[in-house]
Amino acid sequence: MTNTNYTEISHSDDCEKYVNQFIQDFQIRSAEIGRGTVIKRALPSRNKRMIGAWCFLDHAGPVTFPQGDGLDVGPHPHIGLQTFTWMIEGTMMHTDSIGSKQLIRPKQVNLMTAGHGISHTEVAPDSEIHMHAAQLWIALPDDKINIAPQFDHYPELPVVEQDNIEFTVLVGNFLETQSPVKVHSELLAVDLTAKESATTRIPLNPNYEYGFLALEGTANINGHELDDNNLVVLEPGLKEIEVQLHQGTRLLMLGGKPFESPILLWWNFVGRTQEELAIAREQWVNQDSRFGHIPDYDGPRLEAPAFPDKMRASK
Ligand code: MN
Known about the structure:
The protein is mainly beta.
């Protein structure tokens, strides 16, 4: 915000061209996660594997379904990551192998730290008919990959306003507002909501890369149109960016320092070597105590897919 050179050219075409060198615009793909629920998977993609430590990003819904027909994801394991849920509409019950049982409601965050290993279920209550959520994974850094599993529920996140846009600070520090959500890397997540059309300049950390995803409505990021079919990515180096939100728009802004090491992401696991992922798979198949047990789930555990011969590292 205080870069003099940048301010001098801030309203010229030159500036827009300059900023555009840092911007990439990727189409995102759809996937089905069961019971006809379609999600848009923005990360990882062929073009962009991670944004900081954010290594997985699903935009689920908005969807309306008959009572009793909501999402029901049976017991499955995780290692080496944190799962992060930002609920926009509807409710979901989280149950895990370390004894947590937590209903998540709109405007709340669930953060599950898998670390060395955990298993969990996610089930929509029988009375529920709506779902709209962002579900993300955060890769744990090398020295935290094996920490003890933990679950945290955040019922309320701080909100700050600027230029008629409401910013809910989900992770990290933004506009001098700190999120309580505990992560292990330099990381940012902000929900931007505008009831009416609004334009603002957003301060950026030049050491961070960023991604913008539209959860509702449409926006314009320095001339790049954003809707629910694309992800706009900013490479490190920028100090601010102009963002225009059209009426009734909600964006998810992610940021972070480019991740310290390449990761392997396979099924529900994040690791560094193929061997440790293969071991985790075997332990899940053999019902090893590493992943604990979820006592009151009525249904089968998810089966691990076959292990591939060769994996591609993400970064
Ligand atoms: Mn999961």
